[in-house]
Amino acid sequence: MARCFCRWRVMLICMCMPCILLVLLVAYANVMLCAVMYKTVELPSLHFVAPGTLNNKSFGPLPQTFWDFGQHGDAIWNRLQLTVDRYFNPILRPNDTRAGLENGTIHESPTEAGVLTKLDSVGENLHQLPQQIQDFVKHMHRRDYPTLIQPDGVCGAGEKDEREAPLLLLAIKSTELGFKNRQAIRQTWGRAGWVAGQGGSATGGGGGGGYIRRVFLLGNAVGDSSESLQMESKHHGDILQLDFRDTFFNLTLKDVLFWSWFSRSCNRTVFVLKGDDDVFVNTPKMITYLQDQLRKPQAHKIIEDFMIGDVIIAALPSQERKSKYFIPGSFYKGIYPVYAGGGGVVYSGLLTRRLHHMSKRVHLFPIDDVYVGMCMTRLNVQLVHHPAFLTFGFPTETEEKQPCSYHTILLVHKRSPSQLVKLWAEMKMTQAQCRDATLRKCETFTTKTFRPSKVC
Ligand SMILES: *[C@@H]1O[C@H](CO)[C@@H](O)[C@H](O)[C@H]1NC(C)=O
Ligand SMILES: *[C@@H]1O[C@H](CO)[C@@H](O)[C@H](O)[C@H]1NC(C)=O
Ligand SMILES: *[C@@H]1O[C@H](CO)[C@@H](O)[C@H](O)[C@H]1NC(C)=O
Ligand SMILES: *[C@@H]1O[C@H](CO)[C@@H](O)[C@H](O)[C@H]1NC(C)=O
Ligand SMILES: *[C@@H]1O[C@H](CO)[C@@H](O)[C@H](O)[C@H]1NC(C)=O
User: Which ligand 1 atom sits nearest the alpha carbon of residue 59?
Assistant: First the structure.
């Protein structure tokens, strides 16, 4: 009896097992099919989300996308960038990506050339754009401009008698006509060599100082490098002149070519201050601030990602045709990435090298500080806002009139050459009186652009 029962059981199992498995398989296939179909329906609403934009630790509401992959595909810049991204996509082209990482640039990619020739077909639209955009589009694929004047030192002027690696390189964007600005900077906050710090951190450090180097970044205004500029370079050795037209929309080239020069020439410099030639910098305080960063416990990690300035969030391209910032929708669509106001910003030498590599994969964009933001977004590095960077001047006149106001800032934009000289003299005079002035602190913003809600 028991044997019979056993046989029945075996037979039952033998017959039913395939059926059960078949049912399970069908059910699984159904579920998968539904999931795939559901996803396909969802897909068009997915946006490209730039890495880094969603980090929500210290910023207020952030834009979720900085360019929309589906809808903005027809704008010239977005289309070009999409091609470049596809070209370097490690999933789509594993082999080429590795090649690109080594020494390729976007110009060497065949697809890129294809898109650039296709641009001719939008020629009609191009004629309707303002002249400076047309100029930009015609030359935006080119970056290999020759150097006309090199600075004296390996990494800018001021390398004499250095006993340690330079702490800070001042890289100032200037023009051939900006001689007065350069002179004022050389005599005041931009002196190269050893500079003492001022005003300690909370821990009472602050002593010490650091070595400073200086370089002015110039394009070419007149055609040939002028004689007076040659003389100036002979005398001061702090000019880096590149052979492209020195226009507003070519300023991005100054960043990109500066990064390239820096990566070749400055392997020891710890920090870079990139500013315009009409900013005032509180150099002693800046030195102390930077040395405080180097003393932090996780200093190495901090330095790798270090960029600090006046951070602007969720800005939109200017739509005013008359503005010098005008960017038509047919050229770029989307909001700008988080970026630091270009008047003055400080970043580390390590980050400069990474920006140099990343810039090979980001198409030139006419607004220089936005371009830096685009590269930062792609590096997934977060900018740090500091209220002592005043790229739009002091918020109120009363604050500026305070006796020690200039001792509370690191950088302020815009000041004329004569103002620089006057301010520097005043700073020296009030040094003892303002010894205890601390840097500007967190504040709540009521400005038009969104700013970080929590800062410093
Ligand atoms: C960031 O956090 C705040 C509050 O915690 C929230 O309201 C906001 O939506 C968040 N932003 C993003 C982009 O997630
Ligand atoms: C990619 O590289 C591997 C080995 O390096 C090679 O075997 C493969 O054929 C390459 N693929 C393409 C598409 O070139
Ligand atoms: C990189 O450049 C070197 C010399 O310029 C060249 O020999 C090498 O093939 C290049 N590598 C790639 C992957 O293109
Ligand atoms: C940038 O410089 C190049 C080279 O001199 C020039 O051909 C081009 O027109 C300039 N671009 C703009 C937007 O001025
Ligand atoms: C930095 O560059 C100099 C000369 O270009 C070279 O002698 C030195 O070894 C380099 N240092 C490092 C750490 O790469």
Answer: 1
